[in-house]
Amino acid sequence: MKEYSVNAGPRVHIQELDSGTHAAFSRMTFPRYRSKVTEVCPTHHLRLAAFSRDKPIGLLLGEIKALSREMEILSLFVIQGERRKGVATALLQEAERILVRNKVKSMALVFMEKTQTPHPLRPLLASQQWNSPEIRMVSCFSPKTLLSRGPWVKPYVNLSPRLVLKAWVDLTAEERKSVYREDAPEVLKPNPKDRTLEPVSSIVVFEGKLPIGWMINHEIDSDRIRFSHLWVRSGISPRQLNGIALVGHSIHRWAESPACQALVFASMNFQAHNRPMWNFLTRHLKPYLDDIRFSFGARKELTER
Fold first, then answer.
1. Buried b vs exposed e over 82-100: b needs ≥16 C-beta within 10 Å?
2. Is the same domain home to 173 and 51?
3. Which domain holds residue 164?
């Protein structure tokens, strides 16, 4: 157990969690990571707990990548009433000490930030000599009642007669295989084993038997859809196939289909360097959103002191 002095109150004790103990800490991370706190974990996870007079007050949970020798911080949490006292700093410093000892080369993390609301992690990372956070993704959120009002949310009526637009639910097995085989970026292609793909609002455009564009969506919760992957084949002009019209058609199907009635909330993510999507956001989409958040990544190279 390592002892740290903090800004106020008693000293904070930092220790690695033993497997299966301190179940109270599972509430200090995201639901998808809670099993990593309470169950037996492989050696590539780091779980640091902060105590004040035996009271659990903070948790750092990280995963060490074997190939890159980098630890990604999955979550960093301090309870209300103990924040801004140096607890998160102590957790980061202890993590760094352990990682350097184990020849880990770097630490990294990702955090979400709302528009014009700087994340409290920023001054903490700067004080610990992390690299400046860099924007990675943009995430947009809206209820169906608001998003469906967009004037561009309508059927794609100006589609060229040479093109055929189909919902995923209506594709033949061979047509789906042609989508899986398409030479598109892997991050934009649907996964054959993905059971969360929403088949009614997901659409594909074919020229003959060749897929040239799609909008693939996912049911990420019982009441929420994510408009996930927009792709148009390189060399296809907007006059031939308009990406915004594809999005509008997909949202229209989601808004009007009885099969999607329970999916009343929507999100949409895109990479920050995607200039066409930035333009779409600022010119068309923004008035029909109720929240916009930005994903930032930061990292620190670790060296022995």
1. beebbbbbbbbebbbebbe
2. no
3. 141-295
**Average pLDDT for runs of 10 along the chain of length 305:** 55 79 79 80 82 90 90 95 91 94 94 85 95 95 97 91 95 96 92 94 96 96 95 91 94 96 96 89 94 95 83
Tokens of 214: 């799609």
Note whether 78 and 217 are same-domain residues. no
Q: What type of residue is 44?
A: H
Q: Do 148 and 254 fall into the same domain?
A: yes
In a domain, 156, yes or no: yes
Report, in this order, helix, strand and coil percent for the chain, each rounded to 5: 30, 35, 35
| Residue 55, number of CB atoms within 10 A of its CB | 11
Whether residues 251 and 160 share a domain: the answer is yes
Q: Which residues touch 283 (CB under 8 Å, ≥6 apart)?
A: none
